[in-house]
Each structure stands twice: as structure tokens, then as C-alpha cells.
Amino acid sequence: MNQILRSEAAKGVFINNRWQPSLSGRTIPMIAPADGQAFAAIAAGNAGDIDLAVAAARAALETGAWGRLTATERGRLLLRLSRLVDDHAEELAQLEARDTGKPMKQARADIVAVSRYFEYYGGAADKIHGDTIPFMEGFLVNTLYEPLGVTAHIIPWNYPGQMFGRTVAPALAMGNATVIKPAEEACLVPLRLAELAAEAGFPEGAVNVVPGLGEEAGAALANHRGIDFISFTGSPEVGTLVQIAAAKNHIGCTLELGGKSPQIIFGDADLGAAVQSVAAAVVQNAGQTCSAGSRVLVERRIWDRFMADLKLRFEQIRAGTPEMDLDLGPVISAGQRSRIGAMLQRAEQEGARILAQGEIATNSPAEGFYVRPTVYHEVNPVSELAQREVFGPILAAMPFDSEEEAIRLANGTEYGLVAGVWSGDGSRAIRVARKVRAGQLFVNGYGAGGGIELPFGGMKKSGHGREKGFEALYEFGAMKTLVIKHG
Ligand code: NAD
Description:
Low-confidence stretches: 1-9
Bound molecules: nicotinamide-adenine-dinucleotide
Oligomer: single chain
CATH superfamily of the largest domain: Aldehyde Dehydrogenase, Chain A, domain 1
Shape: globular
Number of strands: 22
Largest sheet: 7 strands, mixed
CATH architecture of the largest domain: 3-Layer(aba) Sandwich
């Protein structure tokens, strides 16, 4: 495995289907979260590299082969890329696991999803069409979709491969030329995917990837005058900067920010299924999922029973290296682990109490960034732990007495990404689901991030715009209205 990984190191920036050295001449070490060791390096792309990447994308659209392809041809390229991802699935999964520390089964599932993004949007590329609008006598009016132009994609480290597929595939299906700035903490799979896109036959300039620091390469891309749209996934703080940059440039952006997603458990729910789902939804990817189910709201009449079952379940959870393939891996970095530790210390000072904890496997490397999965109860609904995203395997549990209180608590944070409602009473489940403000609602289940076909995105501070499903395509398309007077 190490040999594969070393061969990925520090090739530079990927522009016009070729690796070239970064103009900065600097590199960034890649640290494996599982053992804290540097195992590779990436180029620290800078503003000059971003200039070159944006120029390459512009040329691909205006004078290159990419801009001349038909929708069907674009779709075929995406399907070819999907097959190449399948062919390299094990290599990509190992790379993703090493880079992020996630268990191999999660990394393998992620790569299946990457392939599905290219497959789904490959199939959709030539099925995007406008309408004919009834208008005045003597006119024919059509709407049609065109690419926005050069689209910028700034992605995070938690699911590097999936995030690349999720944002780049629909942009390409629509005919845009892309510049991607993956996260400096983990980006080896995005870099490899760019190579595979070239191998699939994407013309030069369609897919350009510039790795580097957020405040350097990321800021240069977000503020570049040559881009036509920004797709951003990451923290609310950086999302604000990106939105300001987009506003100054008079272009659109989608922001996929964090969440504090609740699962609401009514007493008449299938409690066995709910316990399993609640634990899985916060432990997945060590809690570093924007749509992690990080709050559980439980009807008071079943509180004791539910908490007892949840305690038993949590005490079985194990963290370890990707190869151990347990329930979760480490968090991404030492910095992230200390941020989580500081937050938990403040929560405990505010009165939150530990109900249950999972374990870190004893043979996990001591230098790895492991965090024990933990459930807190007696969490004050207005405290930081109930309100702010931890981005770690930490669950905040709170009781409620009535349907109204459950809805109030569910809506009582600044976020609105995903929510789950568990009840045997179908009318109540639907009623509550309709009142909770979130972009995705699950009834008697929970899909943290699941479903390529399902439109996904935030309300409130979780962001705006939709990714996944057909909706994502429209975000990356410019609608034109064509008014023809024929007399
Ligand atoms: P982050 O905002 O620090 O980084 C995200 C990306 O932005 C990275 O590529 C980073 O290099 C870049 N960046 C950083 N500073 C920048 C700047 N000044 N200008 C332009 N780009 C810049 O977030 P993170 O720490 O990588 O990820 C964790 C956060 O992302 C969490 O809050 C999580 O909830 C959120 N997230 C949301 C989703 C979603 O779909 N809603 C998915 C994954 C992660």
C-alpha cells in the first residue's frame, strides 16, 4: 500500500491534463490520521497556479475541444470515468482510507458513490432540456440551458472523493469547465480522479485541480475574476468569505455548510431500529459528516429505556485504523482532536454528563488522532454542545414532552441540513417532518449524506443551493429564454 501512496506524492498541479510544478515551489506534507505520520506531499498551489487553471478552463470552453462536445458526448465521457473509477476502486479506497483515516469499508463505500456520481450525471447529460412557454399570438418562446462557464469547486477533507464526484460531475454534465481546489488535509483521491478524467478522454482544460492552502489557493480561486460560479462545501466561516467573494464578482454560488441535525424519537417508534440508526448516524466517518445526526431528541416517557439501550449500543462501538475496519477511524488532524476536546471540556463545565462511551482499540497507534465516541445527556438545549457543530463522534441527547416541544428543539439551532423523525404514527411523522426546517427529512430512518439521486442542501446557516439529484444540474446551468416573433 505504501508504494501506491508514495507514487502519488507532490506531482504538482493538474492543468490541461498534465502535471506541472506549482509556481510556489512549495509542498504540503500529508499526515495520515491513523498514525500521525507524514506519508506523502502535495503541491502548495498559489494564485499564479489558479490563474493558469482558470485560463485553461476558459480556453477549453471557448477555443478547445470541450466546448464543442455535444451533451451525449459529455455523458459518454462521464460514464467512461465512472467505469475507470470502478476499475481502480481498491486503489482509490486505500488512498482515501490512508488520507482520511476512515475504515476500509467506509472508504470502499465512498468510492462506489464516486463512481455512481459520474454514472448518474453521465446518464443525465443529454436529458436536460427547457420548455416551450405559451405567450402572445405570433411568438414562439423556448427556454434552454447553457453552461455557466468556468465553475470553481472548493471542497473539504471529510469525503474528498465523494465531494469531487458530487460537485464536479453535474458541472461537467452541463458543459462547464472546472477548476477544483481540494482540501489541504486530504486530497489524494481528487488528484487521482483528475488523472483518471484525462484517461477517460476529457479534453484538456475541462478538469483542472490545484491543491493548496485554503487562504492561498482557495481564496485566489474564490476571488478570481475569470470564474462564473462557485460551488463551496466547508465551514460556515469560510462559506461567508466565499459568498462575499461571489457577491463582489456578481456571480452565483452554492454553499454546503455544516449542520446540527436532530433525530426525533417518539415513544411509539421502533426503538430497536432507532437506537441502531442514532448510533450509526453520529459515528459514521468519526462524526465528520456535515449531515451527522449529532442531536437525539427523545420523548420523555421512553427516555430511560431508550438511553439504556443507546448506552449498551455505544459501549460496543470501536475506533481503530482503516485496516482494523471497525466502526470508525480517527478524526482528521491533531488540531481537530484538540478543538473537539476543548468543546467537550466546556460542555462538561456547563453540566453535560457522559452517558456512554465507545472504545479506541488498544492496538491503535498512540500517535493517531482518535476520539472516543461519546453520548452526552442532560445537555442544555441552548448550550454550545446542543447548538454548535462538533464534527466528531459526539452525540447530544435531550428529552421532550410534546410534539410541539420536539419541533421547537429540532428547529432551535441556526442550522437546517437533515433531520430524522421516528414514530409508528404515520400522520404524526409527516406532520412533524413538514414542520422541521431542514433540506432533507427522513421518516423512520436516517441517511447521513446518502443517495446520489436525492437533492441535498441546507436551510438557514447550513447553506443554500442544492446538490445531488437532477436539481444539482440546474445550479450549474444558465437558463436562457428565447423569444421568436414569427408573425
Ligand atoms: P473549511 O471551510 O476550513 O475548508 C473547506 C475548503 O475551503 C478547503 O478546501 C479549504 O482549503 C478551503 N478554504 C479555507 N479557507 C479558505 C478561504 N479563505 N478561501 C477559500 N477557500 C478556503 O472546512 P473544513 O474544515 O475543511 O471542513 C469542515 C466543515 O465543512 C464542517 O463545518 C462541515 O460541516 C462542513 N462540511 C459541510 C458539508 C456539506 O455538504 N454541507 C460537507 C462536508 C463538510
